[in-house]
From TrEMBL, chain A:
<keyword id="KW-0963">Cytoplasm</keyword>
<feature type="region of interest" description="Disordered">
    <location>
        <begin position="529"/>
        <end position="559"/>
    </location>
</feature>
<dbReference type="InterPro" id="IPR005835">
    <property type="entry name" value="NTP_transferase_dom"/>
</dbReference>
<dbReference type="InterPro" id="IPR044123">
    <property type="entry name" value="W2_eIF2B_epsilon"/>
</dbReference>
<dbReference type="InterPro" id="IPR016024">
    <property type="entry name" value="ARM-type_fold"/>
</dbReference>
<dbReference type="InterPro" id="IPR051956">
    <property type="entry name" value="eIF2B_epsilon"/>
</dbReference>
<dbReference type="GO" id="GO:0005851">
    <property type="term" value="C:eukaryotic translation initiation factor 2B complex"/>
</dbReference>
<dbReference type="GO" id="GO:0005829">
    <property type="term" value="C:cytosol"/>
</dbReference>
<dbReference type="InterPro" id="IPR029044">
    <property type="entry name" value="Nucleotide-diphossugar_trans"/>
</dbReference>
UniProtKB/TrEMBL annotation, chain B:
<dbReference type="Pfam" id="PF25084">
    <property type="entry name" value="LbH_EIF2B"/>
</dbReference>
<dbReference type="GO" id="GO:0005085">
    <property type="term" value="F:guanyl-nucleotide exchange factor activity"/>
</dbReference>
<dbReference type="GO" id="GO:0003743">
    <property type="term" value="F:translation initiation factor activity"/>
</dbReference>
<dbReference type="GO" id="GO:0005851">
    <property type="term" value="C:eukaryotic translation initiation factor 2B complex"/>
</dbReference>
<protein>
    <recommendedName>
        <fullName>Translation initiation factor eIF2B subunit gamma</fullName>
    </recommendedName>
</protein>
<keyword id="KW-0648">Protein biosynthesis</keyword>
<feature type="domain" description="Nucleotidyl transferase">
    <location>
        <begin position="5"/>
        <end position="149"/>
    </location>
</feature>
<feature type="domain" description="EIF2B subunit epsilon/gamma LbH">
    <location>
        <begin position="357"/>
        <end position="450"/>
    </location>
</feature>
<comment type="subunit">
    <text>Component of the translation initiation factor 2B (eIF2B) complex which is a heterodecamer of two sets of five different subunits: alpha, beta, gamma, delta and epsilon. Subunits alpha, beta and delta comprise a regulatory subcomplex and subunits epsilon and gamma comprise a catalytic subcomplex. Within the complex, the hexameric regulatory complex resides at the center, with the two heterodimeric catalytic subcomplexes bound on opposite sides.</text>
</comment>
């Protein structure tokens, strides 16, 4: 590796030498997400057709044209399919372009993939890191040169991220690719990346930049108008960094942010902005839609349908952005609108209207069909009178006559939609049942997909079986619930997982409906008003604005803290009860909790007492007197523990207040307040002084607050008399 | 130009003790042997801004400043001097004189600025954008005081403290974020909403708010009325206006940011607004600013949001702009005015690059180096040496005296064999023989006894 590096550094000075270092690329043929489900249960994302060509071909064709000589394709989910596809394609037989596949079955994230590649020890210089769903036509020359020059000056410049200008919508806060808005801070002079926030927390109205950033740089530009192209130029250290930090999973969320936050190692990330060339990644259905349109409208030239690159057949560009393969059967009365691609062997019936859509190969489309903004893959049958708007229909789908696909529908492979059936918006239909384990939680995405892989492999088996079944048997014999897709329909409508429902419109192929837009506008306005009235507009004073804030925050925090502290104390206590831990040990544990949560003895006493009472309540009892008995038992048993925290009168009062609180909230305790109070006194947990002071404090309280004081009136009266007597005796 | 100018001349600033006193308020401190306020007044005169209100803290100080101004500018400027109570802050001062303000736009200038930035340009930028506020920014001094200053080099080895953190839009015409004072100690917090509106924001720490603002009067009035806790223009009013520029709270600002005259009532038909704005855009024949785009809302046709604009005027790097707000700044400015920024002083320099008043008398073998100034009627004995210093009027300096990097005001008596370095000697001070001062400030009328040696001290008479 040392010699390689030398080569690299010398190489950039000498163009002849430069040629000797083969440029390598790692192509991740797995996005490690589940955004394209249910389709990706049956076929890997990189093989999904994008304007009738599998996505991976766009990526490979670009890498080849950009001068990359060696590509390592990392396959994970459906690795067999990817490898088979590559073997059947011509990619393995290109001159000056080697494609090597690396297969893994247990990687659940990009981090795992890069760690595996590091172990293989195949990368020996700067490399391009890209996923197999990227469409681009940018030239790598400049960015590589910049990267190498930076590396020469500063060996810590390990990565260059390609970005592009793209202003996200102010309303939905997402880019046209359907990805979340991105906030980045960049040093305008060096182009160093200083801050990166995707997955923006919409609830937070502000961005916090470390003030130290400005100490090092006199000026920073903060961008909301950039888009991450997910094309990275990396130095070999990146791989070892992933290996060193075995918890890095996600390229952006963990790796990038990890490097930005961690200033110990001093690794730096830089950006390269492209202006005229195209680069985008298919992240979700919306970007699938957007990028398809970009391809049809030729932004990605030369990667367009009528230019022959790998995997597409000859197709001709006609007026109004229409691409038609040569051998199609089109009725004269059919109207094929602008920006439409029709694959070869497709037949289109009378008076059918198609606009802004992509139709694959070998489809048969009946008469009076209207297709708008949809993506029809290969061998799809659409019978007469159907209406499709902004839908995706995978290979082998059959839409029976008169059926309607509303915007945002995704039909996975070989789904059949029954006659006259209306598939509601945003439905996702598959022959496979929805995996039960559906976790929409971002955090659990990886855990999910790890489960998913095992699932997938089992599912792929069932797919194969299913396929067999389907080909062998007529559909009628399989009993699909007719309610799901109408009579003769086949497929399960996936329920949209909770929480995801709101967001479905964001990532769908369908344009954002007007009502959602207006909703978002309102939300945005409310947001503004909130910031307007609220904390970000402080009344005055230099310190006030933030002191207001911090008070607010502190309140929230301390409240949370108290709750956590209470729970921890309770858990500690219960463990002590069940495991017979001695009182001294419990005290030790509670003390350490007290220190870590920064609490006082009174808090401990209160929470411990609460736990005691809860324990007493849980012991089975029939009557109030038994409850009192149980409480007394518990109190007697744990008296020592409680007493430890009752050094002062204040703490004892705290216990009484807690008792009040408990009695207020639990109806079992409410009637026996006075009895328990007496027991506390009797067991010498609480001194009479505490009770009397509590009574004094309560004198001025509201009537509602005095319920328990009244209940204990007699007892207090007795105490008072007793103490007076004592005093009298003393006097005597 | 329909601009009214308010010069905030301050009073007897505590930062400047012992230089200032009841007799010499801050505005009258000499810079290059003339009061510091004269620099601002002449700068305003250059831009043809002659209708001024000078606001002075404290009645006595106001009288003194007023009498000086009326003496010096009797025919040239129309100056009103207003006294406000002490410690009301800059916003409070404006509040106190609010009823005097009648023009459409108000230019607020701090009386301690020594600058050569054309103020007319600031006013023009304000007018061009029809802004609610325009703030002048200048480059923050990178390495503290003058580049040649040697004695203070050590502190500057550390990172320079920031004066402001300023966020600008990509065209560098609008102010979208500003942090001052205590906020600088915290992490930078930026509202996402404004970032979304501008798309891209440049955050700079090398710029400084020069405390020169143009305000739309109606909005200024409203803010001062409604926010009665606001004390400082710099720390309260400006950040407030910047923060709420996308959701203007001001009823004086029409939906599309166009000014609304008070007579017109509240609402106009939106179509009319629209036309108004279109015509505005056409008139400017430029792309609309992000405020206008934002105000248009998602439909792009009818303005739905109130916005107002906060503009900036960034002074070029070659321009000089420093405020006299510390003792350090006082010596720096005095040095600069006769040195690097000599064009400000308004004097013509001799071939030796110094200014010696014809009536000054020099003894034999006395040298006055370049970047020095010797005032009217001052006398120096034999074998003296003056370097990079300003000496005021009617001073009497004995023999064998060294004055380096210092400011000596008027009527100062310096005995034989004194050595003065990096010090400020106020008026009527008497230094007896062989006094050695280094990094000292000597308050007015103080007597330093013979042979004393002081270093880094502030010497002043006790206040009676």
């Amino acid at each position: 590796m040392g010699t390689q590096k030398k080569n690299a550094s010398r190489g950039s000075e000498d163009p002849v030498e430069l040629a000797r270092v083969p440029l390598q690329a790692i192509l991740l043929a797995d996005s490690f997400t589940t955004k394209f489900r249910p389709i990706t249960l049956e076929r890997p994302k990189v093989l999904l057709p994008l304007v009738n060509v599998p996505m991976i071909n766009y990526t490979l064709a670009w890498l080849e044209s950009a001068g990359v000589e060696e590509v390592f394709v990392f396959c994970c989910a459906h690795s067999k399919q990817v490898i088979d596809y590559l073997e059947s394609s011509e990619w393995f037989s290109q001159p000056n372009f080697t494609v090597t596949t690396i297969e893994s079955h247990n990687s659940v994230s990009a981090g795992d993939a890069l760690r595996l590649i590091y172990e293989r020890n195949v990368i020996n210089g700067d490399f391009v890191l890209i996923s197999g769903d990227t469409v681009s036509n940018m030239s790598l020359t400049q960015v590589l040169q910049e990267h190498k020059e930076r590396r020469k000056k500063d060996s810590n410049a390990v990565m260059t991220v390609v970005i592009k200008r793209s202003k996200p919508s102010q309303i939905t806060h997402q880019s046209r690719l359907g990805t979340d808005e991105l906030f980045v801070a960049i040093d305008p002079n060096t182009k160093q990346l200083l801050y990166y926030e995707d997955k923006a927390d919409h609830a937070k109205g502000s961005i916090y930049l470390d003030k130290l950033l400005l100490a090092d740089n006199p000026s920073i530009t903060l961008h909301n108008d950039k888009q991450d192209c997910y094309i990275d130029i990396c130095s070999p250290e990146v791989l070892s960094l992933f290996t060193d930090n075995f918890d890095y999973q996600h390229l952006r969320r963990h790796f990038l942010k990890g490097l930005l936050v961690d200033d110990i190692m001093g690794y730096k990330i830089f950006t390269h902005e492209i202006h005229s060339s195209y680069a985008a990644r298919i992240d979700n259905f919306r970007s699938y839609d957007t990028i398809s349109k970009d391809i049809i409208q030729r932004w990605t030239y030369p990667l367009v349908p009528d230019v022959k690159f790998f995997g597409n057949s000859s197709i001709k560009l006609e007026r109004q952005g229409m691409y038609r393969a040569s051998e199609i059967g089109q009725s004269r009365s059919a109207q094929i609108g602008p920006f439409t691609v029709i694959g070869s062997g497709t037949k289109i019936g009378n008076t059918t209207k198609i606009s802004n859509s992509v139709i694959g190969e070998g489809c048969s489309i009946g008469s009076n069909v209207s297709i708008e903004g949809s993506y029809i893959w290969d061998n799809v049958t659409i019978e007469d009178g159907c209406k499709l708007r902004h839908a995706i229909a995978c290979d082998g789908v059959i839409v029976k006559s008169g059926a309607v696909l509303e915007p945002g529908v995704v039909l996975s492979f070989k789904v059949v939609v029954g006659q006259q059936f209306i598939v509601p918006s945003y439905s996702k239909v598959s022959l496979l049942q929805q995996p039960i384990k559906q976790d929409s939680d971002e955090e659990l995405e990886y855990a999910d997909s790890s489960g998913g892989i095992a699932e997938i492999s089992s599912i792929t088996h069932t797919v194969d079986k299913l396929n067999g079944e389907i080909t062998n048997q007529p559909f009628e014999t399989q009993c699909w619930p007719t309610s799901e897709l109408g009579t003769g329909g086949a497929g399960y409508v996936w329920s949209i997982c909770e929480g995801g429902h709101d967001e479905e419109w964001r990532h769908s192929v369908a344009p954002i409906p007007a009502d959602k837009l207006s909703e978002a506008i309102h939300a945005a306005d409310d947001d503004l008003e909130l910031t307007q009235d609220g904390r970000s507009l402080p009344p005055s004073g230099e310190l006030k604005p933030d002191s207001n804030d911090s008070e607010y925050d502190d309140d929230g925090e301390s409240r949370d803290d108290s709750i956590y502290f209470g729970k921890e104390v309770e858990a500690t206590f219960l463990r002590a009860v069940h495991e017979n831990i001695t009182v001294d040990h419990v005290i030790l544990e509670v003390n350490s909790l007290r220190l870590s949560y920064n609490k006082v003895a009174a808090d401990c006493a209160g929470d411990l007492f609460y736990s005691l009472m809860k324990l007493a309540l849980e012991t089975p009892q029939d009557s109030a007197s038994e409850l009192v008995q149980a409480t007394t038992n518990v109190l007697a048993k744990w008296k020592k523990l409680l007493k430890y925290y009752l050094a002062e009168i204040d703490e004892e009062i705290e216990v009484i207040l807690k008792l009040e609180e408990i009695c207020e909230s639990t109806k079992e305790f409410a009637p026996v307040f006075d009895k328990i109070l007496y027991q506390l006194y009797d067991l010498e947990v609480i001194q009479e002084e505490a009770i009397l002071r509590w009574d004094d404090e309560k004198k001025d309280a509201d009537e509602s607050d005095k319920v328990f004081v009244k209940q204990a009136e007699k007892f207090i009266q007795w105490l008072r008399e007793a103490s007076e007597e004592d005093e009298e005796e003393d006097e005597e | 130009m329909d601009f009214q100018v308010v010069v905030l001349a301050g009073g007897t600033s505590k930062n400047l003790v012992p230089l200032v006193s009841k007799e010499v308020p801050k505005a009258l401190l000499p810079v290059g042997n003339r009061p510091v306020i004269s620099y601002v007044l002449e700068l305003l005169e250059l831009s043809n801004l002659k209708d001024l209100i000078v606001v002075v803290e404290g009645q006595d100080a106001a009288v003194r400043v007023g009498s000086w101004i009326s003496g010096a500018y009797v025919d040239r400027l129309h100056v009103e001097v207003a006294a406000v109570p002490e410690d009301v802050g800059t916003a409070g001062a404006l509040r106190a004189i609010a009823h005097h303000l009648t023009a459409k736009d108000i230019l607020v200038v701090s009386g301690d600025i020594v600058s050569d930035v054309p103020l007319g340009a600031v006013a023009a930028a304000h007018r061009r954008h029809d802004a609610v506020v325009t703030a002048m920014l200048c480059s923050a001094p990178v390495s503290g005081p003058s580049e040649s200053g040697s004695s203070v080099g050590k502190d500057k080895a550390k990172k320079p403290g920031h004066y402001n953190i300023i966020g600008l839009d990509p065209t560098k015409q609008f102010l979208v974020y500003i942090a001052t004072g205590a906020e600088l100690e915290k992490d930078i917090r930026i509202q996402k909403s404004i970032l979304r509106a501008v798309g891209q924001m440049e955050i700079r720490s090398d710029l400084m708010d020069a405390h020169l603002y143009a305000f739309k009067r109606s909005v200024l009035h409203e803010v001062l009325d409604q926010k009665d806790t606001f004390q400082s223009l710099k720390q309260d009013v400006l950040p407030y206006l910047v923060r709420c520029q996308l959701v203007s709270p001001s009823s004086e600002v029409l939906l599309n940011g166009a000014p609304q005259t008070e007579e017109n009532g509240n609402e106009k038909a939106s179509s009319q607004n629209n036309q108004l704005m279109l015509s505005q855009i056409l008139a400017n024949s430029s792309t609309p600013s992000f405020h206008e785009l934002y105000a248009l809302g998602p439909n792009g046709s009818t303005p739905v949001r109130r916005t107002h604009k906060c503009c900036v005027y960034i002074a070029g790097k070659s321009k000089y702009c420093v405020r006299l707000n510390s003792i350090q700044a006082f010596s720096d400015i005095n040095r600069d005015v006769i040195g690097d920024a000599s064009h400000l002083s308004g004097y013509s320099f001799s071939a030796q690059n110094n200014i010696i008043h014809p009536s000054a008398e020099l003894g034999s073998k006395t040298t006055v180096g370049p970047h020095c100034m010797l005032g009217e009627g001052s006398q120096m004995g034999d074998k003296c040496s003056v370097k990079r210093s300003v000496i005021g009027r009617h001073c009497r300096i004995g023999s064998n005296v060294k004055v380096v990097n210092s400011v000596v005001m008027n009527h100062v008596t310096i005995g034989d064999g004194c050595s003065i370095q990096n010090s400020i000697i106020c008026s009527n001070v008497q230094l007896q023989d062989r006094v050695v001062l280094k990094d000292c400030q000597v308050g007015a009328g103080f007597v330093v006894t013979a042979g004393s040696e002081c270093k880094g001290e502030a010497l002043a008479k006790k206040e009676k």
